[in-house]
C-alpha cells in the first residue's frame, strides 16, 4: 500500500495534491492529518502549511491484476485479465493465445499461479480472507466434468469386479470432486491415502454388500 506525505495551504489542498499524485479518488485512500497548519499573523507572519499522510487502501483486485500481469510478462504471454469479486470470492479469467502453457499438465501450472495469487491477495491478515479462483478457457468446469466421469466409471468397475481401485494422484480440489460425486453411491466408499503431492483417492466396495 503506497503512502505519501504532502503539504498544502490547507488540508483540503494537500489532499487534492495527494489524490492527483496517487491517481486515486477520496474513497480509495486513508488520510492522517499530521499538522493542520496555521494562517499566521495577517496570513504573512508565522504561516505554516498543513501536512498530511495519505495511504492507498488495500485493493484486492489491483494487487491480483498486477501480480498476474508480472507473471505473464515473465512468461512472455499476452492475455486479457478479467477479474470479478463477489461474496469474498475473487474470480479471475485469462484469455488469449498460449493458454495451454498457463494450464500446464493437468492444470498444475494454473493451480500454482492460483495459489501464489491467493497468497498475494491475502497478505494483509487484518483484512477479510478472499478465496481466489483462477481459470482459463473454462478449464476448471471441463476438468470437473471429466473427474465426475472418472468417478462414476471407477465406481462401476468396483461394483462389477469387487476390486479396490486407486486413482492417480490428485490435488485436494480434485479429490473433493471424486469424493463428492460418489458420496451418495450405495455400492462404494471412497477415502484418500498417501502424502502430498502423491495423495490419491481409493474406491472400494462397501463391506456390507
From TrEMBL:
Name of the gene this protein is made from: khpB
Record-stated family: Belongs to the KhpB RNA-binding protein family.
SMART domains, per the entry: Jag_N, R3H
Domain R3H positions: 141-207
Domain notes from UniProt: Has an N-terminal Jag-N domain and 2 RNA-binding domains (KH and R3H).
Function: A probable RNA chaperone. Forms a complex with KhpA which binds to cellular RNA and controls its expression. Plays a role in peptidoglycan (PG) homeostasis and cell length regulation.
Subunit organization: Forms a complex with KhpA.
InterPro entries: Jag_KH (IPR038008), Jag_N_dom_sf (IPR038247), KH_dom-like_a/b (IPR015946), KhpB (IPR039247), KhpB_N (IPR032782), R3H_dom (IPR001374), R3H_dom_sf (IPR036867), R3H_KhpB (IPR034079)
Protein name: RNA-binding protein KhpB
SUPFAM superfamilies assigned: R3H domain
Source organism (scientific name): Clostridium puniceum
Record-linked Pfam families: Jag_N (PF14804), KH_KhpA-B (PF13083), R3H (PF01424)
Annotated localization: Cytoplasm
Amino acid at each position: 500500500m503506497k503512502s505519501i506525505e504532502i503539504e498544502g495551504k490547507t488540508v483540503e489542498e494537500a489532499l487534492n495534491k495527494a489524490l492527483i499524485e496517487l491517481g486515486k479518488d477520496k474513497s480509495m485512500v486513508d488520510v492522517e492529518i499530521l499538522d493542520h497548519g496555521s494562517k499566521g499573523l495577517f496570513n504573512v507572519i508565522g504561516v505554516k502549511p498543513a501536512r498530511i499522510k495519505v495511504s492507498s487502501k488495500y485493493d484486492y483486485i489491483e494487487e491480483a491484476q498486477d501480480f498476474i500481469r508480472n507473471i505473464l510478462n515473465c512468461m512472455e504471454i499476452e492475455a486479457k485479465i478479467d477479474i470479478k469479486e463477489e461474496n469474498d470470492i475473487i474470480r479471475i479469467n485469462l484469455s488469449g493465445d498460449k493458454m495451454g502453457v498457463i494450464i500446464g499438465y493437468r492444470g498444475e501450472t494454473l493451480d500454482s499461479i492460483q495459489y501464489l495469487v491467493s497468497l498475494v491477495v491475502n497478505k494483509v491478515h487484518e483484512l477479510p480472507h478472499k478465496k481466489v479462483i483462477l481459470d482459463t478457457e473454462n478449464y476448471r468446469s471441463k476438468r470437473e466434468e471429466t473427474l465426475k466421469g472418472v468417478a462414476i466409471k471407477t465406481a462401476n468397475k468396483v461394483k462389477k469386479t469387487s476390486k479396490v481401485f486407486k486413482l492417480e494422484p490428485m490435488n485436494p480440489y480434485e479429490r473433493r470432486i471424486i469424493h463428492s460425486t460418489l458420496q451418495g453411491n450405495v455400492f462404494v466408499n471412497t477415502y484418500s491415502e498417501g502424502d502430498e503431492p502423491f495423495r490419491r483417492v481409493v474406491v472400494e466396495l462397501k463391506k456390507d454388500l
